[in-house]
Write the structure tokens for this entry.
Amino acid sequence: MPHDRRRKVRTGPTRSNMAGMDAEAPAWPVNRTRRTGLRHHDETHAGHRASWLRAAVLGANDGLLSTSSLLIGVASAEANRSVLFATGVAAVVAGAGSMAIGEYSSVSSQRDAEVADLKTEREELENMPRAELAELTGIYEKRGLPRDLAREVAVALTEHDALSAHARDELGLDPNELSKPLEAAVVSAGSFALGALVPILVMMTLGAGVRVAGVVVATLIGLGVLGSIGARLGGAPPGRPALRVLVGGAAAMALAWGVGQAFNVSVA
């Protein structure tokens, strides 16, 4: 029988031809993007905004809801316009100050812990570099890299910037992006004040018969918008976060109204 000279062409690497391939070459065509028509795209991540975004959303929600609830409770006790205005201003000053101090203290504690971790890591790199290199290699092995490749990566990153490599992959920190207490305090206080202005303006604008209803409607709209914006900036679907704050806000205002009704006294 004549020998059939036709042979099947293999499109991927085989055991026989892999031996001659560069160990660092990928197992797929280098020009895959050109072949498949895929194009590089810019990815936008929200992780770097997490700190100030959390402070801003929390402050605005707190300012809007706490001030609304307070004004609804006082208004339901038949307080006059001047009392309501004084109550609102006091709520803004006290709430913004409380948010700023609380956020500054909380984030300062977080930053202190981050600085202490980096200091410890720096000392360990100076005193036991081999152990730290082995630790970094083990981290990459657990992530799925072969041991030889994991050690090669660990050596390269250690030579480039050992502290940054360990901070990022061991501690989950970026030495150049530590927590910022002052930024968190300013953002929290400012967003609280802005959120609190909404119910104050509504309460001062509307007549006595519709003040409470107007504040409730404005607050629910504001909470829904804030929940949706916060979710979108954080890269999450807006529906559920908005619903959570709406339900919680409605419950808080209903409770405040009930307390005001229970102490139904005329405040002149």
Summary: The mean pLDDT is 76.
